[in-house]
Design goal:
The longest helix has 35 residues. 92% of the residues lie in helices and 0% in strands. It is an all-alpha fold. It has one domain. It has two helices and no strands.
Length: 71
Amino acid sequence: MDVLIWIGAGVSVAGLAGLVWCILRILKARKAGLSDEELRAELQKVVPMNTGALLLSVLGLMIVVMGIALG
């Protein structure tokens, strides 16, 4: 079951990378000095990606726990 642990760790790292990307994109938008409406629109674009990255990270951790439990 070591394979499940490594697969889960990879999926979790991919989710974490997505979260870092979301953070960097919002920081870039804040530093750009956008108006309130433009910043709100940018945030609305990032929310689905952020949610997906969180889901991916949770799924990866679930795979790791399953690999540990079965191993």
